[in-house]
Amino acid sequence: MARRNSKYSCCVCALAIGLLGLSAGVISAADTLPTPPPDTRSKHLQAFFEAYNCPPPLLTSEYIAVADAYGLDYRLLPAVSVRESTCGQHARYNNRWGWDSARTGFASLRHGIRFIARQLAFGRYYQGKTLDEKLHAYNPNPKYPGEIRSLMREIDAD
Fold this sequence. Notes:
The chain is an all-alpha fold. About 60% of the residues lie in helices and about 0% in strands.
């Protein structure tokens, strides 16, 4: 019987050593996932707005959050703001985007960003359309989509 206990003790010791060794080197799925690249969109918008001497507030975080919430390209509304009002230098009534031919305004710039993003995502003139179709509905000038796309490319240019 003593022999059996020593054999049992050896197995228990080996198992304990093995478990201790494994627990010291436990790797979780979170440890093995790649780290996502840093979100540089805010930096790109900041540089874009500064290049056009846009007046504060720039609201870069708001543009990004609203674009993400509505499934829009984060560069769209900033590009429209530069094209329509030189991003606020020539804006009226918190309307940097030329909405309603700048005849109407918004309670705040944040409200304007949210309202226009919601319209571009779900409004009856925009929902289900491609970016170029949305831009044509927003401004029927045939050159308008190309102008906005050009400004959007500037945002990501390094």
